[in-house]
Design goal:
mainly alpha
């Protein structure tokens, strides 16, 4: 089931990035990100209510920070897709997006398994 959901998530992200890049050729990338956020917010709220749980102030702060930085990253990705070739922009964006969490996790003390390191080594190039 995890592989199926992971594959489905990859397809959805890929299609969304393609559409966002195409839209950014016609409209400013920040505008595309703002509208996509506005349209996705109701769905996010429904999921949040359905899942439930309790959040602390630190959770909200991390969520806000992740959302703000993610939005900046999307603006840069869409601007790159609007100006350059997707075959060059998308893999570089993905590799850089993969490096940051690995560096943070290792710095925080996590020790990935040898297979995880093989995956990192294969994904980055």
């Amino acid at each position: 089931m995890e592989v199926l959901l992971g594959g489905l998530a990859s397809i959805v992200y890929g299609v969304a990035d393609f559409i966002g890049g195409e839209a950014s050729r016609k409209v400013n990338a920040a505008t595309v990100v703002a509208w996509s956020g506005a349209f996705s917010l109701p769905l996010l709220l429904v999921v949040a209510v359905a899942v439930g749980g309790e959040a602390t102030t630190a959770d909200y702060a991390l969520g806000f920070t992740a959302g703000a930085l993610g939005s900046i990253g999307l603006v840069m990705l869409f601007a790159g897709l609007a100006q350059g070739r997707a075959a060059a922009v998308a893999p570089v964006s993905a590799a850089l997006g993969a490096i940051v969490p690995v560096v943070v996790a290792v710095t925080a003390g996590d020790r990935p398994s040898p297979w995880a390191w093989v995956g990192v080594a294969l994904a980055i190039p």
